[in-house]
């Protein structure tokens, strides 16, 4: 793990300790609309501050909450809290998303952390995706789960027609509501499907972790699967039944 990823790991540990030590009600307050279009919460802003303090020396930070925050040759894209509504609802599926692009715009490093389960997923350029626990320093290659029974469909609530078609085709899924985390779990489920406008904050780190999988990215949907047949079937369904905004 290089210096940038070590600093990102340190920041995640600080975020975890901070959001679990402060008075939660004060964090539920909503603030202004962030650069990514969502309304920022106290959790988002506290986490953003911690990431800025730990990572700004490595390059320009672009956050879903505050947009571009400083100058630098490299670009660091962060979603300080992925799944803000989940954390506000005490639903244990929320985390952080960080990716670093070099001065040529090539993605070099990425880390996604599930703050609810202490799971950490990371990858560095020319390497394979790795997995471990937030407060441990043991890492292993993320292996594919060949016994999976479900996929993940993010924004299913916004696409009832596609939900019905998946049901008719007996394609099981869950919709937990944190796209970066869902992409990090892509090797463990049948597929990850996202239908709606694609924002860089949501997908850049998660997609880096999908290296070697079947990945289809369009302007208004994304499909990831370890199985080419599943990926092709979903692409056929989405392309015939979804009209972007």
**Helix share bin:** 25-40%
Question: Which architecture of the largest domain per CATH?
Answer: 2-Layer Sandwich
Strand content: 25-35%
Q: How are the strands of the largest sheet arranged?
A: 4-3-5-6-7-8-9-10
Specify the structural class: alpha+beta
Major sheet attributes: 8 strands, mixed
- The number of helices is 8
What name is given to the CATH topology of the largest domain?
A: Fructose-1,6-Bisphosphatase, Chain A, domain 1
Mean pLDDT comes to 89
CATH class of the largest domain, anyone? Alpha Beta
Enzyme class: hydrolase
EC number: 3.1.3.25
Organism: Sulfurovum sp. enrichment culture clone C5
Cofactor: Mg(2+)
How would you explain this protein's 3D organization?
The chain has 245 residues and is of the alpha+beta class. It folds into 2 domains: 3-141, Fructose-1,6-Bisphosphatase, Chain A, domain 1 (2-Layer Sandwich); 151-241, D-Maltodextrin-Binding Protein, domain 2. It has helices spanning 3-19, 24-27, 42-55, 84-88, 160-168, 179-184, 200-208, 228-241, and strands at residues 30-33, 39-41, 60-63, 67-68, 75-82, 95-101, 107-114, 119-124, 130-133, 139-141, 151-154, 173-174, 192-195, 214-217, 221-225. The strands form 3 sheets. The chain has an 8-stranded mixed β-sheet, with helices on both faces. It has a 5-stranded mixed β-sheet with strand order 12-11-13-15-14. A hairpin with a 5-residue loop joins strand 8 (119-124) and strand 9 (130-133). The chain is globular, with a radius of gyration of 17 Å. Mean pLDDT is 89; it is low at 32-37. Keywords: Hydrolase, Magnesium, Metal-binding. It comes from Sulfurovum sp. enrichment culture clone C5.
